[in-house]
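Z., the sequence and structure:
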Amino acid sequence: MPSITPELYEFIVKVVDDKVKEIRVTREEFDKLTTTVNKLAEAQHRTEERLERLEATVERLAEAQHRTEQRLEQLAEAQHRTEQRLEQLAEAQHRTEQRLEQLAEAQHRTEERLERLEATVEQLAEAQRETAKALSGLASQVGGLSDTVGFRLEDVARVMVPGWLERHMNIVVEGEFEPAYVSGDGREVQVNLFGKGRKPDGKEIIVVGECKSRIHSSEVRSFAKVLETVRSAFEGREILAFMFGYIVHPSADIEAEGYKIVVLAPYRK
């Protein structure tokens, strides 16, 4: 067997040492690489966890974004409805303003008419006052001549009343009206005009009249008391009562209707 020379031995030892060193270096590098890989794996794990959390956050943000978009759509619709409502309110406001203008114009016209009416009423009031003064003066004159006028009034009634009764009531007066005293019910009364007449059926009717220059409701009531005695004196016989005067107050007509008294005047033909 050949022997190993010292030179060959040293060479082999050196080669082995070098290989061992290379292996040791490679092992260290491998260990370093393993450590690095482990660290990368841990980092990757942490990164994945962060990504998962990030994805969850993104998902929540996406949901929030979706809700925000829905809310924005609702707000947009509400805004649209608000704008429509504002337009309607603006139109209503415009119509209201137009109506107010019309009312203001109508009010102005009404005020003008009221002013004209007030002026007219004032004129009528003044005319009424003048008429009242004139009537007052006339009443004073008539009152001052009561005896003379009373006689003349009876003469006028004697002429006018028979014709009026025949035209309007078909009653024919027989003879002329005369003043008379009538007793009945325990007392005696005087009537200005007393007469008899015939109705179309031939039935007799007693005609009794009272003459007053001015006839008011009070004069009608006084004559009605006189008629009570007349009706008592001619009980069972039909009686026609009338009053004749120059001036007849409207209250006299109302009062006379209740007592069935005919009120006449020269202007009532």
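The longest helix spans residues 6-144. The chain has two domains: 1-143, 145-264.

Let me know what you think.
H.
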